[in-house]
């Protein structure tokens, strides 16, 4: 198929046509624009003028060429079989002017020329038929998508709507019933922060200086430290007896060369000398005093109202005064615990998992309201144990403190007037065929036991009708009475060198008052 194009980009003035045929070399043809019959024909080509009146189809060129009246091609031609129709006439086109001057004698020669073009266009039909298929496709897709959406809603949306409606109805029924609500308030600031700000100014440091006799090095000056609680604004401070006992001689008398100093939390660089008002070894409590007024006294709570699981905050000076004012927190882990602090001493205490370390002794155990509920005293520090700290209940401490501040000792506490030899055990008793009980090691002069006739070497077997086998059992029974009460004491007294040759005696003892 031959094709021609106008090469007017490179040669705008000299118009030419080029035949881009795959089997012929291009031929350049130039025209002067003349319409004379004698004009020069393109070089390399001989053209014979066809008979314009001939109706022979073989001699009539096909394609978009109009030879009628020697006019060039114009408008949109339609081939009608025997002739071409042309619309409005336009000015002759110089590119096709040679058709009005030269006619080819043979149709085959015209078909092989570089200007021959042949094409056929079908008549244009209406657009309705072309639109039917797209409309059907759109309708089909719409039906499929719509069905899928409706099916999904009935499968997933409708059940949720029913559940929501049912839940609203159930909630309305629940709202009609009374419900117990427990509110947990979560604040940005920890409650321990407020507790520490309130109580810390009332917790002081206690420094104890004393002299210790060493067999190798002689007398040496040493010191220890602990904590204390300001319980009165005029300088009264509650602490543990074991914090200050190294500086004591007997009772409330301080040993020679010993001293007790108090450090206030807002005056770390200054110390104040303290005197001992009173102390009680049985409860491990003591009261000291400094000569200051308008001190911030701590609020004391009620330890009888405590419940396991309540917040517990310990404030004190663990590890020495360099860690003064340390705050640890935990809970109340147990109540009415009994711990053995020595061979002859038991304490009923509060258990907590708030960290209590050496130096915390005498410090405060505080509840969520910032009230002191206990005096930190001991902890179990054996291998394998952690988080076992103990505090003396503040209700016990208040009773002892009031008595110490008013009288210097625990007033009304009963005294039997004997000391017990702890070496006498059940094994020793069996070996000597003697009854089990408490061996009297010493009788205090002018005491109730002394006046009743108790002697050294007697074995106490009953206290007011209750069998006794340990010192703690004796103390528990004795403390059920008060000073001045009379009890019956049963003892076994050995009358010869043979323990079997003894006798049982029942003595009436009037209990005295323990002022130590």
Structure explained in plain terms:
By secondary structure, the chain is α+β, with helices and mostly antiparallel strands. The chain has four domains: 1-121, no CATH class; 126-166; 192-407, Thrombin, subunit H (Beta Barrel), CATH 2.40.10; 414-513, Pdz3 Domain, CATH 2.30.42. The protein is 19% helix and 29% strand. It is built from eight helices and 26 strands. The strands form six sheets. Strands 10-9-6-7-8-12-11 form a seven-stranded antiparallel sheet. The protein has a six-stranded antiparallel barrel with strand order 13-14-15-18-17-16. The longest helix has 48 residues, at 128-175. The protein is elongated and about 140 Å long. The termini are far apart. Residues 1-92, 94-108 and 110-118 have low confidence and may be disordered.
Low-pLDDT ranges: 1-92, 94-108, 110-118
Query: Could you estimate the helical fraction of the residues in percent?
Result: 10-25%
If classified by CATH, what would the architecture of the largest domain be?
Beta Barrel
Which structural class do the helices and strands define? alpha+beta
Report mean pLDDT, rounded to a whole number.
76
Number of strands: 26
The end-to-end distance, rounded to whole angstroms, is: 137 Å
Strand adjacency order, main sheet: 10-9-6-7-8-12-11
Strand content: 25-35%
Instruction: Kindly give the count of domains.
Output: 4
Number of helices: 8
Q: Describe the oligomeric state of these chains in a short phrase.
A: single chain
Q: What integer value in Å does the Rg equal?
A: 62 Å
**Main beta sheet strand tally, sense and closure:** 7 strands, antiparallel
CATH fold descriptor of the largest domain: Thrombin, subunit H
CATH level-1 class of the largest domain: Mainly Beta
Shape estimate: elongated
């Amino acid at each position: 198929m031959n094709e021609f194009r106008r090469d007017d980009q490179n040669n705008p003035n000299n118009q030419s046509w080029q035949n881009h045929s795959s089997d012929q070399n291009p031929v350049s043809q130039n025209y002067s624009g003349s319409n004379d019959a004698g004009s020069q024909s393109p070089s390399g080509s001989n053209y014979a003028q066809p008979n314009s009146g001939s109706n022979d189809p073989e001699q009539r060129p096909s394609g978009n060429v109009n030879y009628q009246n020697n006019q060039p091609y114009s408008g949109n031609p339609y081939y009608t079989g025997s002739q071409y129709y042309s619309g409005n006439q336009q000015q002759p086109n110089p590119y096709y002017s040679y058709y009005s001057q030269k006619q080819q004698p043979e149709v085959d020669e015209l078909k092989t020329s570089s200007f021959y073009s042949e094409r056929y266009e079908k008549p244009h039909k209406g657009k309705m038929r072309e639109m039917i298929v797209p409309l059907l496709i759109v309708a089909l897709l719409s039906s499929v998508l719509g069905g899928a959406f409706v099916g999904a809603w009935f499968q997933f949306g409708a059940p949720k709507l029913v559940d929501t409606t049912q839940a609203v109805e159930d909630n309305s029924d629940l709202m009609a019933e009374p419900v117990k609500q427990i509110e947990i308030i979560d604040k940005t600031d920890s409650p321990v922060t407020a507790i520490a700000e309130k109580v810390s100014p009332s917790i002081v440091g206690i420094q104890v200086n004393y002299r210790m006799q060493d067999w190798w090095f002689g007398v040496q000056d040493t010191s220890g430290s602990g904590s204390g609680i300001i319980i009165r604004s005029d300088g009264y401070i509650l602490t543990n007896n074991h914090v200050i006992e190294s500086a004591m001689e007997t009772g409330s008398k301080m040993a020679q060369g010993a001293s007790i100093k108090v450090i206030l939390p807002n005056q770390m660089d200054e110390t104040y000398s303290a005197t001992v008002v009173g102390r009680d070894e049985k409860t491990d409590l003591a009261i000291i005093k400094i000569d200051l007024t308008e001190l911030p006294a701590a609020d004391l709570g009620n330890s009888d109202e405590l419940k396991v699981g309540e917040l517990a905050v310990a404030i004190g000076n663990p590890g020495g005064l360099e860690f003064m004012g340390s705050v640890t927190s935990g809970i109340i882990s147990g109540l009415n615990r009994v711990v053995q602090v020595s061979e002859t001493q038991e304490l009923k205490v509060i258990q907590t998992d708030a960290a209590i370390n050496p130096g915390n002794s005498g410090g405060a155990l505080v509840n969520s309201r910032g009230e002191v509920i206990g005096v930190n005293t001991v902890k179990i520090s054996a291998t394998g144990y952690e988080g076992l700290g103990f505090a003396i209940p503040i209700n016990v401490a208040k009773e002892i403190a009031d008595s110490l501040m008013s009288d210097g000792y625990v007033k009304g506490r009963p005294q039997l007037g004997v000391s017990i030899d702890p070496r006498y055990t059940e094994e020793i008793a069996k070996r000597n065929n003697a009854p089990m009980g408490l061996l009297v090691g010493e009788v205090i002069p002018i005491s109730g036991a002394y006046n009743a006739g108790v002697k050294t070497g007697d074995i106490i077997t009953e206290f007011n009708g209750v069998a006794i086998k340990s010192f703690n059992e004796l103390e528990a029974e004795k403390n059920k009475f008060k000073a001045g009460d009379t009890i019956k004491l049963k003892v076994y007294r050995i009358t010869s060198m043979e323990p079997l040759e003894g006798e049982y005696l029942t003595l009436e003892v009037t209990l005295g008052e323990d002022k130590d």
